[in-house]
């Protein structure tokens, strides 16, 4: 109480706050002994000279209270939405590059199909001539790989990437790097790269296992419907788009918290399959006896995420889930015709560049 009363007295009398501190119990400055010590006899005021009437500092004594300024938000409100400009441009540019790369990938795959066909015939002939080895680990792996569907083969690389990032979270020396680049937050210094990297990031094993199981379950239908090239473009673009929707909602609500996980991209794949095949029957893994249509499942999921976004539920990033689901629905209804079916001019341009560069040859035209 003595220290607090002395500091209050310094404020009221206009004293310098730095003179009110005591270093290791040393003597008080002589100018403050009368203020903070016992009361002494009042001295007779002396007339001041005209130059003494001019204050030494133009600032009043009141700013002493403002020595500790309140903490400022990560960025001021007038510039809040301006931080979304770079993420928006990154989202548009990355989505365009993803579909452009998918079109080139499909072109190159079709171009090499004839050569691959003859290579396959030669491999089958050598397999028949070569003596079979029992217990060969490589042969067992090849048999397992060949037993997978095209969709399962496509998402195997995605699952492996998620597993590697999950292991990196367990390395203490990488924690700061993981938080900065593998979690998305509009208040962070890194805004663009985490929009993609956080799609492959999971801190909880249960979170990763649940997401990868759903991705594995819907991969066969999604890839057979879109093709592996278009599927990868949609999946990667969905991760960035869902993160951007999460950015917008966080900035609008003022609730800044890091997010991670592949849920937004997986919601796009789920919504695309349910929109394309609404009568398909789905079931919960732990309750296989209860089945429901894909259309009803999609309606329930969208309703729950919309309610979580409006009511402020904090268990999941409902904005990212909802953004991914809406992107999947939009792409099946409009995006496929608007983007993928109009890729022919770009593919022709790439074919001309490949032909001029000497890449053309037998089977070069697609």
Low-confidence stretches: 1-41, 49-79, 360-366
Q: What best-fitting shape do the alpha-carbon axes yield?
A: globular
Radius of gyration, whole Å: 33 Å
> How many DSSP E strands?
2
The CATH class of the domain at 81-111 and 154-356 turns out to be Mainly Alpha
Can you describe this structure?
There is one protein chain. The chain has 366 residues and is mostly helical. It has a domain at 81-111 and 154-356: Rhomboid-like (Rhomboid-like fold). It has helices spanning 2-13, 30-36, 85-111, 113-129, 137-147, 150-168, 175-181, 193-197, 205-226, 228-253, 263-276, 294-311, 318-338, 344-356; strands at 281-284, 287-293. A two-stranded antiparallel ribbon has the order 1-2. A hairpin with a 2-residue loop joins strand 1 and strand 2 (287-293). Helix 11 (263-276) packs antiparallel against helix 12 and helix 12 (294-311) crosses helix 13 (318-338). The protein is globular and about 60 Å long. The N and C termini lie far apart (87 Å). The model is unreliable at 1-41, 49-79 and 360-366 (pLDDT under 50).
